[in-house]
Amino acid sequence: MIKLWIDGDMIEVEPGATLLEAATILGKEIPTLCYLKEINEIGTCRLCLVEDERSGKLMASCITPATDGMKIHTNTERVRKTRKLNLELLLSNHKVDCPTCIKSGDCELKELSEKMGIRDNRFAGLKSSLDRDDSTPSLFRDPEKCILCRRCVSVCHQVQSVKAIVPEGRGFNTVVEPAFYNSLSESPCVLCGQCSVICPTGAITEKEYINQVWEALDDPQKHVIVQTAPAVRVALSEAFNQPAGSIVTGQMVAALRRLGFDQVFDTNFTADLTIMEEGTELIKRIENNETLPLFTSCSPGWIKFIEHYYPEFIYNLSSCKSPQQMFGAVARSYYAEKNGIDQKDLVVVSIMPCTAKKYEASRSEMAGDVDYALTTRELGRMIKQAGINIIDLPEEDFNQLLGASSGAADIFGATGGVMEAALRTAYELLTGEELAALDFKEVRGIKGIKEAEVKIGDMNLKVAVANGLGNARKILERIKAGEELHFVEFMACPGGCIGGGGQPLPATEDVLEKRLEALYEIDRNKKIRKSHQNPYIKKIYQEYLEKPGSHKAHQLLHTHYVVRGV
Fold it and tell me: Which of 25, 97, 348, 541 is the most buried (most CB within 10 A)?
């Protein structure tokens, strides 16, 4: 162990520990902007400076290893003044429009400016003049707000392995954007939004559609319905300063009604429908010796990733649309026909934890299913705009027909949830026997890759779950090398949908764990926990779709994907 003193307090740490880690153990708060543990440890912002008593040097604590006998000071006059100077220099080339910035309530730059007592800009001078990028349906870039911390670059490269953005240029002309100064739409960006989750300013954010939804709600000629993804109900409360993992399903439904939606439905209904179609597809591929492993297709960021980087596996993708898109297709056919609603008057809105869902709704293969996809963060803003105190609302239930779901659908929001839901149904459909133990704990948790063998009848089904695209790449490379798997669930975002690019901030590991457990709590408390036992799923097949995998089901609920360039 290494012994050192920080502000007079002795501490022992493991070799290799940084000064920042040592100070954190002692409960000392040192400001950082560029730092992301094990992802972006480069010391560029220079806000984490501390003073070494022996050498008299100022050191970036996030990258300086602790050494034996060190005496470090974190709060000297020199440290405070230098940190403040460095922050002022960052602000000198930052577009300051806090009252209108979408990130204002979550801006780390703004928060640190307040903590350090910055009241004016001493370095008013030349500022970068850069074009904004709104070329995609999902993300919006404003490079004039970028502080060059490179967090987004590190997450895109190291966690997601997409490498869609890089630092271009030198010195004052440096800008973080796609290579060759292209727009996001011209890059292999998968629009997962993980860059927007870790950006400390408003340089990369979700693309807002709140005004378009208000316009639809205010139009008396429009019949506006809304669907809510499972991960939203365990994260929305965080936008209202509630503890992570608080379950607000009933209050969310009540708030959506007060916003003016004509019907409030649940994406969980079509999550159950997805299991029926995808489970049938898996069984068919196994029985007919067709292409395996079968890959899940619920995550649009993952779909775009495979289209760009692994097009040889496109036929391994399930042809099922995601629950969001299935809902839109069913709403525009089954629901509209049963209620005599004209297609031109129907507006379908979805509330998703994911920025890539905005892109998915605009895909030409499925265009028209969903009109607008809002993130959890956007819904939080919309509720605040309406002056609704969601936490005090009485709980209300979803409208039926497209609002009933099983517990299996709720866990879609967690990594491994789609796999577990599918196994609950596939087991009983393949064996004709009732499954006694419903919890497949081998595929649970936020670990990046999980694997299991599940005995179904005479077959040992080899399954894997990967969350985060860097982990997806590892699984794909293993399959390319000849490893045998039968069924694989991929989710673009770390933790699955609970860690989606549109969820409330921050999305720390502790927060993800609490959201995860909340989804499993909802599942445990449901009377029906298997998708094929949902009575409204049985009803839609009896009245409209005939059976899973039927011609009509394929017309409405299935799609295809395309090869894209890198």
Answer: 348
